[in-house]
Amino acid sequence: MKFSIYRFDPDSDSAPRMEEHELLDSEIADDMMVLAALKKIKQQDETLGFRKSCGEGVCGSDGMNINGKNCLACITPLKGLSEPVVIRPFPGQPVIRDLIVDMDPFFRQYRAVKPWLTVHDQEPEVEYQQSPEQREQLDGLYECILCGCCSTACPSFWWNPEEFLGPAALLQAWRFVTDSRDQATTERLQALEGPFRLFRCRTIMNCTNSCPKGLNPSDAIGKLREAMLRRSL
Amino acid sequence: MFVLTGMRAWVVQRFSAIVLLLVVPWLFISSPQINTMNYEEWRLWVSGGFNPPLIMGGFTALLFHLWVGIRDVLLDYVRHRLLRLLLLGSVAVLLFWLGLWLALILLRAL
């Protein structure tokens, strides 16, 4: 199986290049994932750089662009991918080396939405209580693993990474706005006002298409807009 | 500052789109021979019935819709802040002038 892999080392290369690699059919199992293939290629060329950790689609560290789509290498099966398999780092992000990008802008925007519960009342002695219905509101939101596939697939995030929060951060913004225990809804919605933070979203839904966990940031952004509209009426 | 709002611009864009969806087809239907009309016929059509508020409302919606659309393109693609502000200002002045011009034409026709 043939692979075309993005290579760039800012310390030694003047420009990025695509490097061809090949794995024999005997080296490829039917249920093999892209991450396993990358590990085999790394055995051939140990200078190849990529992030990995759990290998099970939980840690979100091996996000990359495979055949034009952002996904997690560890849960993307090789079977069905057209050849050569073109592997690039996340688009629009500063490359540290090869397939490793600088995720600082992404996490900076994540932290900007204050992704923690804010409670103004006195904290309960035992626990915060929620009804099953209130808890259900968080389904499809809390499962985000912050891999960055969505935000780095978003053209608005490419153009304005410092100002537009991006789909991952906005999904988390809605996760706390809709949480019945959180008491900072007004502040959270006010913080999203302005032409950039939320309203650069054009609803092209690249985020939803690329989420490896099947979440829907685009829907969350729509609900944030609705909440802001309701509050302003 | 209107240029820097998010929510208001988003609402204006949606609202003006709905107005345009209603008014533009109606204007086309109600004036099938507008290309062959002389000035007097055109003046009678413009000033007749509900046409004055519909034409003014439709063009106002169009100008606001244009403003939000062009503003979004400039905010997306023009990175240099001063140049962005200059272009936004130029567009705002141009659209305001177009609105004023349209109002004068309609007022003369009434």
Counting helices, strands and paired strands, the structural category of chain B is: mainly alpha
Mean pLDDT of chain A, rounded to whole units?
A: 95
Overall radius of gyration of chain B: 17 Å
User: Averaged pLDDT of chain B, please?
Assistant: 88
Structural class of chain A: alpha+beta
* Assigned CATH class of chain B: Mainly Alpha
Task: List unreliable stretches of 5+ residues of chain B.
Answer: none
- Termini distance of chain A? 58 Å
Task: Count up the helices of chain B.
Answer: 4
Radius of gyration of chain A: 20 Å
Shape of chain B: elongated
Low-confidence stretches of chain A: none
Task: Please name the two chains that share the biggest interface, counting residues whose Cβ lies under 8 Å from a Cβ on the partner chain.
Answer: A-B, 16 and 13 residues
Give a quick summary of the entry.
Chain A is α+β, with helices and mostly antiparallel strands. Chain A has helices at residues 34-44, 104-112, 132-136, 155-159, 167-177, 185-191, 206-210, 217-232; strands spanning 2-7, 17-22, 63-66, 69-72, 85-88, 95-97, 100-101.
Description:
- The complex is a heterodimer of chains A (about 230) and B (about 110).
- Chain A is an alpha+beta fold and about 230 residues long.
- Chain A has helices at about 35-45, 105-110, 130-135, 155-160, 165-175, 185-190, 205-210, 215-230, and strands at about 1-5, 15-20, 65, 70, 85-90, 95, 100.
- In chain A, the strands form 2 sheets. In chain A, strands 2-1-5-3-4 form a 5-stranded mixed β-sheet, with no helix packed on it. In chain A, strands 6-7 form a two-stranded antiparallel sheet.
- In chain A, helix 2 (about 105-110) packs parallel to helix 5 (about 165-175) and helix 5 packs across helix 8 (about 215-230).
- Chain A is elongated.
- Chain B is mainly alpha-helical and about 110 residues long.
- Chain B has one domain (about 1-110): Fumarate reductase/succinate dehydrogenase, transmembrane subunit (3 helical TM bundles of succinate and fumarate reductases, Up-down Bundle), CATH 1.20.1300.
- In chain B, about 80% of the residues lie in helices and about 0% in strands.
- Chain B has helices at about 5-30, 40-45, 50-75, 80-110.
- Chain B is elongated and about 50 Å long.
- The interface between A and B is medium-sized, with 16 and 13 residues.
